[in-house]
Amino acid sequence: MTNAKPASPQTETAKSLLLGWLSARLSPEAFGWLEQQVAVISCGERAQQLGIAVGLAPRKVGKADLDLTPSEREDGRRARKDLDTTGWSVDQAARSLLVLASFKGDEAAFASGLDRIFVSAEIGEQIALLRGLPLFPAAKRVVPHAVEGVRSAMQPIFEAVAHRNPFPREEFSEAQWNQMVVKTLFIGSTLAPIQGLDERRNPELALMLFDYARERRAAGRPVSHELWRCVGPFAGAREVGELANMLANGVGMEAKAAALALSECPLPEARSALAATPALSAAIGNGHLTWNDIV
Amino acid sequence: MFIDPHAHMISRTTDDYEAMAKAGVVAVIEPAFWIGQARTNAGSYADYLSHILGFERFRAGQFGVRHYCCIGLNSKEANNEPLAEAVMEILPGFATKEGVVAIGEIGYDEQTALEDKYFRLQLDLARDLDLPVMIHTPHRDKKRGASRSMDVIIEHKVDPSRVVIDHVNEETIQEVRDRGFWAAFSIYPHSKMTAERMVALVKTFGPERLIVDSACDWGVSDPLSVPKTAKLMAEHGLSEDAIRKVTYANALAVYGQSGQMAEADWLAPAAIDQRTLYQGNTVLRGGQVPRVDQSES
Prior knowledge:
The structure holds 2 protein chains of 2 kinds. By secondary structure, chain A is mainly alpha-helical. In chain A, 63% of the residues lie in helices and 0% in strands. Chain A is built from 16 helices and no strands. In chain A, α1 (9-23) runs antiparallel to α4 and α2 (28-43) runs antiparallel to α3. By secondary structure, chain B is an alpha/beta fold. Chain B has one domain (2-279): TIM Barrel (Alpha-Beta Barrel). The A-B interface holds A 48, 51-52, 55-56, 58-59, 63-65, 67, 73, 82, 84, 86-87, 89, 91-92, 119-127, 153-154, 156, 164, 192-193, 195 and B 46, 49-50, 53-55, 57-58, 90, 93-94, 96-99, 259-260, 270-273, 275-277, 291-297.
């Protein structure tokens, strides 16, 4: 049905993964439309077809939740490390498939085709394409779209990049990463769904977060307990003092977050501060209290 | 529940959205139009269309109002031929996007030859894409301009049952109705049509194929025109059914023909929309929690 050569093993794997998931969920009519679009786009004879098909996808395949089974999720992670399709809908999966079909082995051509789609993408298209980034080839060339997504004032677009997406962890520079993490807190979103949150902690980010927390407190505004997840290993004497104060005077989640942060700080002052709350210290020691408990 | 099927929300404040949602406006339609001054290049036009399909739709959703739009080249800017040519190139790509319920608002302003040319091209586009049409009738030489618009629509074989003639008044309603079009009335504080006159028109003509909108924009206009007119109609003894038709059901019937607008969008939105595009609405407050699976990672 198509004269296209396999573009790359990874792209072919991703395409068959998405085709498999969608064939199990779409009506024969909707799936037939999708297969036909994939064939036309793969041929590459009609340059406009990708944009048209991406635009039409929800009205052709619907917007039901993708809702993968546990074994399908496992297949996803095997095909693409850390792929997390939580919250995806079928039209989003279909849009990623259509974009993948446009790759014919030339990364520059693929990236400029994607640029053209992004230029006029409405909000639903942007969310779908940003969620699809980890499946696309030419990762280095498509980084600007992820960075622009993080700049968005539309929270669902921001979260399409920041949450449950391995792309930022793998491709963002430290400055880009730090902007994303701080903005997540700034817009009232949550850190927990960010992949690689612990692994990509760094001193610069810790500095920005301490400053941000002080600014919030000066304004009498609450600070997310999640913030402290990114600071422990880089806390200096002043910061340890602040964390010790939170531990001594804070209640509930705040004290727990302070204890966890102190437990990750190598300074001796941190150890002695933590020793003041033996119960929390023991809970951390035996694994009963972890960052996953902090919301 | 009300639908305001003509509202330039890009020019309105968050206070307006709050007031509209509180008054029961569940959906708005934002027709592409002139922004108060001329755009000088197709790039700014493309960004405007992206804006009403993107950020404005998101902004409305945050207040529990569903946002749809009409895509088109307006008559004023049709007079800049290089701009118009370039905009015509990009229109099909935008017109097929999600949430686009019509080609519009298009029609005549000064009734120049260029306006006529691009009006006709866009009628053909609407017919080819099977989309309804929203017609802007001119402020000057209105009666003849409206008649001429309808002549051209019929000449281009667009079915009147898929076309809304907007900014109708006492002078133009009879012909619009007789020829099978939908008649929309922009209720303005100082011009176009008032709520009192609207009540009289519904009493005289009945509610079939009549539609009330606010056409609120960057000028003196009232985003609560639709609920206020409904209230006045009730006070003047119009039936609940008639009020529902002209402030909700008729707009849904004509623009719903696009396949892009349905009652379920606000009464039972898709889960993905509840998570992303449509928040703070009564459906959610009623106890339905948007379902977000726990991440496994």
